[in-house]
Amino acid sequence: MSLQQQEQNEEAVRKEQDGMLLGVKGLKKYFPIKKGLLRKTIGQVRAVDDVSFFIKKGETFGLVGESGCGKSTTGRTIMRLYEPTEGTILFNGEDLSTKTEREMLPFRRDIQMVFQDPYSSLNPRKTVESILKEPLSLHNTHPRNERQGYIESLMERVGLNPSYVNRYPHEFSGGQRQRIGIARALALNPKLIIGDEPVSALDVSVQSQVLNLMKDLQDEFELTYLFIAHDLGVVKHISDRIGVMYLGKMMEVASEKNLYRNPLHPYTQALLSAVPRSHPSEIKRERIILKGEIPNPASPPAGCVFHTRCPQAMEECKGKVPSFKEVKNDHFVACHLYE
Hints:
The chain is an alpha/beta fold. Helices cover 33% and strands 24% of the residues. The longest helix is centred in the middle third of the chain and has 18 residues, at 204-221. The protein is globular and about 70 Å long.
């Protein structure tokens, strides 16, 4: 390696670590495929396959892609709800991938999750008061005589009447239930909240209300978000930077402005071409129709996993995996077109 290349690598590392809260490097999560009476492993589903990105303190990182691309699995693996197959998960400089369950307990206060379905994520047999008190009791964060007042203040902050604390989840609408989920995530005053498609199950009018609430809470509590979604319009509204995934791999990472104005990867270009314009001033894009279907993650294509559907595929794409690298300032892409 030349001195110039070494200096460039050191500069890239320095830029990446400056203000970084979460750093994911080479993350993999494979699920075994078992068959027969002896449950013999005959293959693996590569749900997340060598994904890398970082999130700075106070920003919102949007993670998008088609259903089944591995974005939700990425979020759950970062939370250690799934054990990573390989890779590192750096949170505040600590590698979470090597921690035991007992060692993870303090970090679970700092990393919380808002789930996609606001009903199934809440225990139907418990009142809102019991749901919100549970994390306080588990981590012993507030004196018992102060918990009731703290819960009521949380309810009020997310836009719910504090007198509703004795109600059950089925007595609320979908948007109200998601507000309860957000209040539960806020209860331990976390540093990072992972939103696993938190508005996709809500009506469009309610989506904007919940998104605006999350943005207000981010400013008030100095939160950092990993926002997982498949709706590029929603992601644009809330994200500072965006990562695009396809078949378990990261295709492109850029700021919200750069990604929407100048998408580099053919997959990103196809996704953005399908987003309807909400204002005449927005860029008008020619519709790109992708042919074929998403390959089976248990047997992904050799080379670039997108080459079977890519309108700009070259011979090189069929046998060589493209490197994920910075091709412009803070604009990363994995594509042979830029090598």
